[in-house]
Design goal:
Layout: E1 2-7, E2 10-13, E3 18-26, E4 31-39, E5 46-52, E6 57-59, E7 67-72, E8 77-82, E9 91-101, E10 104-109, E11 113-118
Parallel strand pairs: 2-11
Antiparallel strand pairs: 1-3, 3-8, 4-5, 4-9, 5-6, 7-8, 9-10, 9-11
């Protein structure tokens, strides 16, 4: 069983910054990747950023050059530094972890943290 706990959401003005953090806990965890998705009201959940165990990073086009993902493998923690925030970044942000289970992957999700950007 794995638990993902997020922190760092909140209200910020457009142009400001926020840092999200997520820590995974559990026994015998093996990760393929960790990252963040978000879901705005009335929209589908979308990938924001992910980072693999090898350090490869992927970003949604809408956040490139504004968001940076980082990971502390030893601490099972992933962080998302968000800068130059825009109103359209307003959403619930969900941490996820792609866990290696035998020869397959399964995703675990955090409870979500609200990010609100005021214009």
């Amino acid at each position: 069983q794995v638990q993902l706990v997020e922190s760092g959401g909140g209200l910020v003005q457009a142009g400001g910054s926020l840092r999200l953090s997520c820590t995974a806990s559990g026994r015998n965890l093996r990760f393929d990747s960790m990252g963040w998705h978000r879901q705005a009201p009335g929209k589908q959940r979308e990938l924001v950023a992910r980072i693999t165990t090898g350090g490869s990073e992927t970003y949604a086009d809408s956040v490139k050059d504004r968001f940076t993902i980082s990971r502390d493998i030893a601490g099972n923690t992933v962080e998302l530094q968000m800068s130059s925030l825009k109103a359209e970044d307003t959403a619930v942000y969900y941490c996820y972890a792609a866990l290696i289970s035998g020869t397959s992957l399964r995703n675990a999700w955090g409870q979500g943290t609200q990010v609100t950007v005021s214009s």
